[in-house]
């Protein structure tokens, strides 16, 4: 299922931070493309290598010191066009309203911490792996979890593929994101043997770690966040006897 549009209600502010994060990821990806064959070395230097993190020793002489900095640099790197487009699509659709509720700075801190926890979760699962992990998926998983808590019944227009056919349906966020998480959990457990052997593939446990972090933090802070923006009639649609804004329920 591929989300293409959501309808959680109006925002109070322009999602500058979400757009800025998308721009940063795109710019880093284009820099990766400019490196040509040297991109693998770039990934090894700035990606999260579990063995290097667990031992606290940089993987190469060029790796940032302390090596834990790679837990942040890896969040802005991607392994291909589909990896980048998929992540940025989810961030674009679900990030703006989460940012609106958390505030720009709070949202950025939340995003980075979710990515940090995601990286550490992958290290915990495979502490001796020499395979570098990259991508914004762990941080975005935290954003998805926050959206699930804050806008569970928001309608999400989604492309659903059925074999060679596809259709577009509107499903509640709780169903779409819930199924996404269950898929990560299932695939993560199914591929655990490969992960522990240090083989490449999708870092499912990073997704799981970021999601669980986002879920717990948002549930704890939900009552302290900004309330949803009220929905009002446009001026031409107001009842002639109505005074001021009117909320729709």
Q: What is this entry, summarized?
A:
This protein is mostly helical.
Characterization of this structure:
- The chain is mainly α and 249 residues long.
- It has one domain (2-224): Rhomboid-like fold (Up-down Bundle), CATH 1.20.1540.10.
- Helix content is 55%, strand content 9%.
- The protein is built from 10 helices and 3 strands; from the N terminus they run E-H-H-H-H-H-H-H-E-E-H-H-H.
- It has a 3-stranded antiparallel sheet.
- Strand 2 and strand 3 form a beta hairpin.
- Helix 6 packs across helix 10 (204-221).
- The longest helix is centred in the middle third of the chain and has 22 residues, at 81-102.
- It is globular and about 55 Å long.
- It starts with a strand and ends in a 28-residue tail after the last helix.
Q: In the CATH hierarchy, what is the superfamily? A: Rhomboid-like
Helical fraction equals 40-55%
Number of strands: 3
As for the CATH topology, it is Rhomboid-like fold
Mean pLDDT: 88
**Shape, please?**
globular
Key structural traits:
249 residues, mainly alpha, Rhomboid-like fold, 3-stranded antiparallel β-sheet, 10 helices, globular, disordered C terminus
């Amino acid at each position: 299922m591929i989300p293409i549009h959501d309808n959680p209600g109006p925002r109070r502010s322009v999602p500058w931070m979400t757009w800025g994060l998308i721009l940063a990821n795109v710019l880093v990806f284009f820099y990766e493309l400019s490196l040509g064959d040297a991109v693998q070395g770039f990934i090894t230097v700035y990606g999260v290598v579990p063995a290097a993190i667990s031992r606290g020793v940089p993987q190469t002489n060029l790796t940032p010191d302390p090596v834990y900095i790679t837990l942040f640099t890896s969040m802005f790197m991607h392994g291909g066009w589909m990896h980048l487009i998929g992540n940025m699509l989810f961030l674009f659709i679900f990030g703006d309203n989460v940012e609106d509720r958390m505030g720009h700075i709070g949202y950025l801190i939340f995003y980075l911490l979710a990515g940090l926890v995601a990286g550490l979760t992958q290290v915990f699962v495979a502490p001796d792996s020499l395979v570098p992990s990259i991508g914004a998926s762990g941080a975005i998983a935290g954003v998805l979890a926050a959206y699930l808590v804050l806008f569970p019944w928001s309608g999400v227009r989604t492309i659903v593929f059925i074999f060679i056919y596809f259709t577009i349906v509107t499903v509640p966020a709780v169903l779409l994101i819930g199924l996404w998480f269950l898929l990560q959990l299932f695939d993560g457990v199914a591929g655990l043997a490969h992960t522990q052997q240090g083989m490449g593939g999708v870092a499912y446990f990073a997704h799981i770690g970021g999601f669980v972090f986002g879920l717990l933090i948002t549930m704890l802070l939900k009552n302290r966040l900004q309330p949803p923006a009220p929905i009002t009639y446009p001026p031409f649609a107001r009842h002639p006897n109505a005074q001021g804004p009117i909320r729709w329920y």
